[in-house]
Amino acid sequence: MSAQPTRGAPATGQRFEADLLLTLTTVIAAAGWIFSKEALAGLPPLIFIGLRFLVAGLVLAAFSLPQLRALDARGLRSSLLVGSLFAGAMVLWILGLAHSSHLGEASFISSLGIVLVPVIARIFFGDRPPASTWFALPLALAGFACLSLDGGFKVELGQWFFLGAALVFALMFNVNSHIVRNISVRALSVVQMLAVGVLVLPPALMIESWPETWSAPVLGWLLASALIATTLRFLLQLHGQSLTTPSHAALILMLEPVWTALAAAWWFGETMNALQLTGCGLIFLALVVSRWVWIRGLFHARG
Hints:
This protein has helices at 12-39, 45-62, 65-69, 73-98, 103-110, 112-125, 132-147, 157-178, 185-207, 216-242, 246-253, 256-267, 274-290, 292-302.
């Protein structure tokens, strides 16, 4: 979920505020991985993700009534299409998290969606991706291969889920940019969040068991995931993006997997061997290369 900023070159004060807000957004996003993993200790994954986004969507809707009233039938249909893809991506993401034993590694695999966006655009929409895409893609694949080579080439179930989530996220971003037009970002995000809750929670209740007891820590992690890692994160990201250019915002938001790996090392005591570090490093390099045109433009603008 991301806003489409409307501002041109920001003033120095705005740039500093944007950097601060967007960096805080990535830190909160990284914390969201911890919140979700802890919540899964007491909640089934699909019930958790359905409740998380239902609560977050309802809270955000309460602050977005004017934008929702302005949403016409066509905009609602487009928003529901994007919301359905978002629901599919989040189901794959939470199943990946439930089967993952290493959050730092998982966060880098999940970030592959950024590299895959122009590839999906080429396949489904006929767009011509920048040349940097074809340099970034081999790096990303090599990085994923390194993460699968620990103890022999074997892709774990959680890694497959995260890779699937990255593919669906890439498709969602393309549908968002090609189909959704003149829709309030806040209204679109409310529909996306509620779509996850409405589409995921009913079938989840049929195939998963509702917890007989709710401990205070599990409830706390659920609320932290919904209110802090989802609603608050969105509001900060939206405001931060409105103060800067899309390219600058994208560069800062790429820090999420780095913070997630550091948070997992601090909270869960995770460590990485040389092969895992190499894999994560290659994926991060692929993210940078995929945004090279924006990076070069950013430095030229400041030069």
